[in-house]
């Protein structure tokens, strides 16, 4: 229960910080993302990367470098014309994480891969799908992107399939980080966020989702 309240408090603090920065200006939010990227790159990522020298640099450019560039460019390109779109990767990833965590805590009896990620269950994954379905029902009509319009007018089963795919992508992003952490016998990537670990622990799914969002935006 103590850990639960820590998670809730941290979520509220992050929500206020991110929401306030986003509403204030494009520049402030981009500076916030850059600050988080530096923390991840300098404090959290080195403890997970099994490589050194040039190989480590190249890997860091690919991940977490490329996803963070995706977040920054999404914000820079669409903030003025499609206000909610830059928030979409965060909304999908964190909704999936939240619903998965809550459902998993209540009835997460069947674990997906306990040796790598003991907290993830099939019931939690199903809860994540439900959460993302609800999110898309409310949020997609507010987005101006072409893919959002297509999904919004699609049959219900196609909307569910779309939400399921995004949820699985977010899950795989978290699983990748879990594999890296287990290889180093670490529970969390960092310690800066009480109840959550580090920033990379909260951005792993976001990094996966933003790449898919950009692919959908680039498909004409």
In short:
The chain has 220 residues and is mostly helical.
Question: Can you give keywords for this protein?
Answer:
single chain; 220 residues; mainly alpha; two-stranded antiparallel sheet; 2 strands; 73% helix; 4% strand
Provide structural commentary.
- Helices cover 73% and strands 4% of the residues.
- With 220 residues, it is mainly alpha-helical.
- It has one domain.
- The chain has a two-stranded antiparallel sheet.
- A hairpin with a 3-residue loop joins β1 (111-113) and β2.
- The model has no long low-confidence stretch (mean pLDDT 89).
What percentage of residues falls in helices of 4 or more residues?
over 70%
SS field, number of helical segments:
8
Instruction: Walk across the major sheet and give the strand order.
Output: 1-2
The number of distinct structural domains comes to: 1
Q: Please describe the biggest sheet, giving its number of strands, its sense, and whether it closes into a barrel.
A: 2 strands, antiparallel
Write the layout of secondary structure elements.
Blueprint: H1 2-24, H2 26-44, H3 54-78, H4 88-107, E1 111-113, E2 117-121, H5 122-139, H6 146-152, H7 156-183, H8 199-218
Antiparallel strand pairs: 1-2
